[in-house]
Fold:
Amino acid sequence: MKEHTTTKRTRGASTPAKNFMRPRLVTKTLLTVSLCCALLACVKNPDTEESPKTIINNVNIVDPVKGLLAQRQVVVQEDKIVYVGPIDKTKAVDSDTIIDATGQFLMPGLWDMHVHFLYDEALTDTMPELFLRYGVTSVRDTGGDVKKLSALREALKDAPAPRIYFSGPLLDGEFVVYDGTDPSRPPLGVRVLNAESAMNTVSALKTAGADFIKIYELVAPATYNSLVAAAKEFDMPIASHVPLMMTADVAGPAAGSMEHLRNIELACAANWQELLTQRQAAITGFTEGLGYALRSGLHTAQRVPAINAYDETRCNEVLDTLTNTIQVPTLRLNTVLMLKPFERPDWPSAATALPQKVLENWQARITMLEANRLTIDHTFANWSQFLIARLLERGVPIGAGTDTPIGLGIPGYSLHTELELLVAGGMSTKQAIYSATVTPAKFLGLEETMGQIKAGMAADLILLSENPLENIEHSRSIINVMSRGSWVD
Structure:
C-alpha cells in the first residue's frame, strides 16, 4: 500500500492561487493528470478485483448537520465515499493510498448556487479551474445559452472541473433585460409571452439537458404561472427573480429558489400596494426601449423608498410564505460597492489568476468606482445584510451563491467571501457551511447523494488545515481538493 502524509499550507485565501500557470497550459496539464488518474483508477487489485481506494485516517470531519466528528476514517473508491467511521486498518490493501490527516479537517465540497459561465467569455475557460482551486466542486449556472452550456459541460466531463448544473437562458417577458443589445450585457435572456411559448420553451430546455429553469424580472404574471406549470410538467426545479409585476409573497412560494433578495423590499414596505401599482403601470405603458433600462429605472425609483418604508409586521407575513423557497442572497454582489473586496489583502494574489484582459477590464472598473465612491448609495447593501437575520428568524432557507463573475466576482474565491458575509449577517458557521453544501443539493433533489461526508455520497471533498466551524475564514485554509474521487492538484 502507498502511504502519503499531507503537508499543511500556510493559511490564507490566496494560498490556492499563488502558483498559477497560464490558463491554457493549466487546462492541458490538468487534463493529462485527469486522464492518468482515470486510467489508474481503473486498474483493479488482482487479488480483490476491487478498484484502488483512498483511505484518509485520523481526520476531523466537518459535518454541516452534526458539526465536528473527530478522529474518523474516510474511505473513497472510484467516485464514491464507501466508508466513514472508526479507523479500521484491515481495510487497506497494497494498491490503496493511505493519508494520515492527523490534525486536519475534511469538509464536503462546496457549491456556488449562482454563477454565469457565459457572462464574460474571456473568463469562461479559466472558471472551472478556479472553482476547484477554492474547493467549489459543484455550481449552479443560472443563466446562459443552453447549447453553449451543454457543450461546455460535455467538454469538461473528463477533465478536472466542478459538476455543472444549468438552467439555460433567463426566461423574460416582452422586453428582455439581457438581450445582447449592449456589448457589456451578454445575450443571456429570451422572450416568453404566453402559455404555449412557456410550455414549448421548458420542453426544449429539458430536451437540451437543462437541470432547472430560471425566470426573470419582466415576465408577466400569467406567463410566470404558465412557466411554473410547465416546470412541474417536466419535473424541473425553478429558480426565479421576483417578477416586477408581482410581489415576493405571491411569486416566491412557486419557486425552489429566489435570487439576490431583490424586490423583497417592495413587498415588505408599508405602502407596497401603491408601489406595486406604480410599477405595473410603468411596465404596462412601456412600449418601446430596452428591457434593461426599464428594469433599472424601476429599481432606481422604488428600491430605496421601499426600504425606507419597511414594515416589520408586513415583512413577517411575506417571509412566512417563503419557508419552502431557498433565498440566495448573493451578499458578495449586493455589498461589493460598499465593502470593496479589491481592498482585501488577499485580493491581488487571487486576481493574478484571471486572464490578463479580464484583469485589465476589472482594474478599469475599480478605478471608476473609486472615483465615484462618494456618490454611491449603500442602502440596499445594508438592507441585504440586515435581512439575513430576519430570514433566519422566520425559518426561511438560505443558499450560498455569488453571481460570479458579475461585480468583480473571482470564481471560487468569492464563495468564501459569501460564507463570511452570511456569518456576519447572523448565520452560525455550521449554518453557512450547510448553505453551501446541503441546501444546493436539496434544490436539485440530490441531498441523498451529495452535500455530506457519508457512505454512498459523492467523493467531493476539501482537506483543510484549520477548522471552519471555529472560524468561517478557515474555509480558505485549503490543503487539497478532491473532485469525483480524485485529488485535483
